[in-house]
Amino acid sequence: MKQSTRLGHLFEKTWKSIESALQRKGFNTIILESERALRKFIYDNIPDNCIVGLGNSLSSSALKIREILLEKGNKVYYSWNGDTYNRSMDSFEEHPVPDFFLTTADSVTSEGRVINYEFSGRAASKHNFPKNIIAFSELASLNKRPNERKMTSDFVVFDQKPKEAEITVALLPFNIAS
After folding, report:
1. What's the rounded Cα separation, in Å, for the pair 13 and 127?
2. If we measure between CA atoms, which residue out of 4, 7, 60 comes closest to residue 178?
3. Each residue of 67-76: pLDDT tens digit?
4. Calpha distance 28→169 (Å, rounded)
5. 2-172: what fold?
6. How confident is the model at residue 42 (pLDDT cuts 50, 70, 90)?
7. pTM, whole model, 2 decimals?
8. Per the count of CB atoms within 10 A, which of 15, 20, 23, 127 is most buried?
9. Cα 19 to Cα 32: distance, rounded to the nearest angstrom
């Protein structure tokens, strides 16, 4: 029992430090304690009948985020649903700019950097951002140091919130069944 309390305190201290750094750089932050809280967050924060882009993560597939969005009447653009690729995305020369883009952060650093592979590096270089980006982060992604040599132009590093978009970093301190 003492060990889990100690780990809980360490996690809380680490998250508070990262949360502070993210907020100083203009990012919104929230902790979603459970899959139920995540679903409620999506229902409460993403309007019905809007356009949503979805990253290619196993996490979003396991959490059935696409299904939640479709239930709300949203038009969902995705290229992979966890099982198969959606080839209809190949017909776009330029992908549509959604109202919301949901993704998994590959890393959230103690300095307040959000590193993401799922958002297009080409779109970011053109400042072609959706209005709202929600980056989900599991505990394993906190303070994870990316290997700078392996990072390509496909990775997007948000050192601060871009003027063109609202970014919310949502911490998921629970294991996602995949």
Report:
1. 34
2. 60
3. 889 899 998 8
4. 6
5. Rossmann fold (3.40.50)
6. very high
7. 0.77
8. 15
9. 13
